[in-house]
Amino acid sequence: MKITLQKLVDNKLFEWSVVVVIIISALLIGAKTYQLSPWVEQIILFADWAVTLFFLAEIMARFIACENKKRFFKNGWNIFDTVIVVVSLIPIQDSEMALLGRLVRVFRVLRMVSIIPELRILINSLLKAMPQLSYVMLLMFIIFYIYGAVGSFFFAPINNTLWGDIATSMLTLFRVMTFEDWTDVMYETMSLYPLSWAYYISFIFFTAFAFLNMVIGIVVNVLDQEKTAYEKMLAVKKHKLTQLDRIERELKDLKKLLDKTHKNP
């Protein structure tokens, strides 16, 4: 049974079936935001419970197919899937916690990440890159703070709304970094300080170009490591399944041999 369920869980058709059900779940959530007739709401309610029961069967199949049951709950995605499914089973539609029930069903769409390996790799890479990214973000904050203080000192008399204090200046600089009408801000200060263009160009160079490329480089590096680790894991799993198939065939052959022996002693 475990071997059969393992083959089912690893089957691409099963994986995409789960994806289709997640999409249906998302459509049901979207449909609930419209004004619907009572009979349509009843159909959606039955469909929602059918989706929940499908997810329950799917998570149970994955749990039974897992070789090490303790290791199953060491995986954060498995814990997330289990919590979502278990909370979805609680009948809180007509209670004060109805809002919580709706929110949990909204988060079921996130199960798309736990089901599709490529999305899982992207999220894991982003999480593992966070410690390195934090130093880049800290350096970026220092640059924002310095440029914000300078901008507030020089440009506050020109436009107090954009440069009145350091917090507002940093918000204005974020607008400049995202290229949201930043030339309007620059031309306004250039009316009093003609060389202020150097302030904006240097800031954009540091933040939008240099730091952004640092972030991309870190994420891509971690993503490559995650892909390599995932490919190794797939190779190990494929080897184990091959061994299980071989053992299964040998057991079948042994059983046939024993049956022949019993028939012809």
TrEMBL record:
SUPFAM superfamilies: Voltage-gated potassium channels (SSF81324). One of its GO terms (molecular function) is high voltage-gated calcium channel activity. It comes from the Bacteria. It is found in: Membrane. It holds the Pfam family Ion_trans. Residues 12-227 form the Ion transport domain. One of its GO terms (cellular component) is voltage-gated calcium channel complex. Residues 237-264 form a coiled coil. Keywords: Calcium, Coiled coil, Glycoprotein, Ion channel, Ion transport, Membrane, Transmembrane, Transmembrane helix, Transport, Voltage-gated channel. GO terms for biological process: calcium ion import across plasma membrane. The chain crosses the membrane at residues 12-31, 43-64, 135-156, 197-223. InterPro entries: Ion_trans_dom, VDCC_alpha-1_subunit, Volt_channel_dom_sf. The keyword 4Fe-4S does not apply. Signal peptide: none annotated. It is a multi-pass membrane protein. The keyword Transferase does not apply. This is Ion transport domain-containing protein. It comes from Marinicella pacifica.
